[in-house]
């Protein structure tokens, strides 16, 4: 059976974005800022097949106080989907948070909605990227004045490097299938009022370090879904572009089923089968007759001959 990647069709439309001015805040020692750089107009990427499920990987510890976690995702190129590892990134200015991009199924096509920096976290499709990005908002950290504090309950930090921390319990709605897109047969989620407001705020495009990170993943053959079958060798990196052994974290799902479930799991893909299974589940269980009764062995009488 040939790989589905070879039969994909993709159309790309470039939509000019309205020009805007980004006011850069002053930098402090605790939060190294990324230098602003010109970003070309964003492109709307459209594919005809769904992206693979999200890989399972460990988050590397934060390397620099003030950096913010950006989760990994499946991006698209003419050769098919490729994995962009999650990584820690210096924000472009104080007070902004990262809204991850997401794939959305609309009118028979999968459309990529690019991520951005802004004062609040916007809508990212309800995708459970993990490590604070649990489908709505970001619970991995927050700005406290001019410093960024990290929630140790969901974020991997080294307290010898990062001192601004707190502990706050986060309720995770575990996504068993690791679905990586919204709509269609994927995640059913719509923007909240707060997320709609965040979408209308002034946004800052991905930094130069982030764009270089994506380009490096694009050029790495091992990141392509057609080569790794949904389990990339590198799940995350400690710094953008750090794809070497010292800065990379492998995918923990290598060798596991692509949907993240037990090998014994069998999904009812046919609606009739699912309906019959549901009806069977509603029927009362048959009473077990219990263990069979033990029959007593027939006694044989062996009489010895009496002496005369």
Fold topology:
Elements (H helix, E strand, L loop, with lengths): L9 E5 L28 E5 L20 E3 L2 E5 L2 E5 L1 E4 L7 E3 L2 E5 L2 E5 L2 E3 L9 E3 L2 E2 L6 E4 L2 E5 L13 E2 L14 E2 L10 H7 L8 H11 L6 H4 L7 E2 L10 E2 L21 H12 L26
Parallel strand pairs: 6-17, 8-16, 14-15
Antiparallel strand pairs: 1-2, 2-9, 3-6, 4-5, 7-10, 8-9, 11-12, 13-14, 17-18
Word description of this protein:
Helices cover 11% and strands 21% of the residues. With 308 residues, it is α+β, with helices and mostly antiparallel strands. It has one domain. The strands form 6 sheets. Strands 1-2-9-8-16 form a 5-stranded mixed sheet, with no helix packed on it. Residues 1-30, 35-41, 254-290 and 302-308 have low confidence and may be disordered.
Label this structure with key terms.
single chain; 308 residues; alpha+beta; five-stranded mixed sheet; four-stranded mixed sheet; 4 helices; 18 strands; 11% helix; 21% strand; disordered N terminus; disordered C terminus
Question: Short description, anyone?
Answer:
The chain is of the alpha+beta class and 308 residues long. The protein is 11% helix and 21% strand.
Give the helix tally: 4
Number of spatially distinct domains: 1
Please state how the strands of the largest beta sheet are arranged side by side: 1-2-9-8-16
Give the oligomeric state.
single chain
- Name the helix and strand elements from N-terminus to C-terminus, one letter apiece: EEEEEEEEEEEEEEEEHHHEEH
> Could you give the distance between the termini?
91 Å
Beta-strand residue percentage: 15-25%
Strands, total number: 18
> In one word, what is the shape?
globular
Q: What is Rg?
A: 27 Å
- Largest sheet properties: 5 strands, mixed
Low-confidence stretches: 1-30, 35-41, 254-290, 302-308
What is the arithmetic mean of pLDDT? 76
Helix proportion: 10-25%
Structural class: alpha+beta
